């Protein structure tokens, strides 16, 4: 949803309801386009990549300490 769409929707809510309820309705919407929000799969993949990089770094540190 674009900012223009959000503005039009907010204006419509204010016409139909009151300002407090319009604010509440807008707060229930995603703050960004859904395509911009992170997914659980993305978080899991990022965590796995981080865990592998951390394990590699620990191994490198162990080898350096042993040498």
What does this structure look like?
By secondary structure, this protein is an all-alpha fold. The chain has two domains: 1-33; 37-67. The chain has three helices and no strands. It has helices spanning 3-16, 19-27, 40-66. Helix 1 (3-16) packs antiparallel against helix 2 (19-27).
How many DSSP-defined strands? 0
From the alpha carbons, calculate the radius of gyration and give it in angstroms: 23 Å
- Total domains, how many? 2
Secondary-structure-derived class: mainly alpha
Order of helices and strands: HHH
Low-confidence stretches: none
Give a brief description.
By secondary structure, this protein is mainly α.
How is the topology of this model organized?
Blueprint: H1 3-16, H2 19-27, H3 40-66
Helix pairs in contact: 1-2
């Amino acid at each position: 949803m674009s900012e223009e769409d959000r503005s039009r929707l907010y204006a419509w809510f204010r016409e139909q309801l009151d300002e407090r309820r319009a604010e509440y309705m807008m707060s229930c919407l995603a703050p960004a386009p859904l395509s911009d929000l992170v997914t659980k799969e993305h978080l899991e993949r990022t965590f796995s990549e981080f865990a592998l990089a951390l394990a590699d770094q620990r191994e490198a540190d162990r080898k350096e300490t042993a040498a």
